[in-house]
Design a protein that fits this description.
The chain is α+β, with helices and mostly antiparallel strands. The chain contains three helices and five strands; from the N terminus they run H-E-E-E-H-E-E-H. It has a five-stranded antiparallel sheet, with helices on one face. It binds guanosine-5'-monophosphate and zinc ion. The site of guanosine-5'-monophosphate (5GP) has 13 residues, from strand 2.
Length: 132
């Protein structure tokens, strides 16, 4: 079956489009976490952030910024930007997308809950593993 976000970005499936440029397409999420919850996708298919080339990602994040600016200006909202990769991360549609979520009373979405303070030795070990 065709990728639903490819179909939407190509205009073959309906969506509530709020922005489009040569490379990117932004439309309202049909199950919004808050009013104005928007998805920003590349027009060319890539499943996850691991699969998209860097230039396309730069263009996509530029579109994300335009959309976030617009939401802040129009809604007077703070804005959360979220992007999931893989099932455990919560990805449901395998076409790269950024969530741009207005944060405005009374619809404030708590996205991240911090854990307890990590021991410094754990942080140091993780730094050694991840730094490049
Ligand atoms: P994910 O969970 O993959 O990070 O986010 C996928 C998002 O796409 C979900 O928030 C879901 O509501 C939204 N979504 C799934 N199918 C459609 C669709 O056909 N149209 C629109 N506008 N949003 C969709
Ligand atoms: Zn696609």
């Amino acid at each position: 079956m065709a990728c639903i976000f490819c179909e939407i970005a190509a205009g073959r499936a309906p969506s509530y489009k709020i922005y489009e440029d040569a490379d990117s397409f932004a439309f309202l999420d049909i199950n919004p976490a808050a009013p104005g919850h928007t998805l920003v996708v590349p027009k060319s298919h890539a499943a996850m952030i691991f699969d998209i080339d860097e230039l396309s990602l730069r263009r996509l994040t530029s579109a994300v910024k335009h959309v976030a600016d617009r939401i802040r200006k129009v809604m007077g909202a703070d804005v959360s930007v979220l992007q999931n990769n893989g099932r455990l991360a919560g990805q449901g549609v395998d076409h790269v997308h950024f969530h741009v979520i207005p944060q405005k009373m009374p619809h404030v979405v708590r996205l991240g809950h911090m854990g307890p303070r990590a021991p410094d030795e754990d942080l140091k070990a993780m730094t050694e593993q991840l730094k490049f």
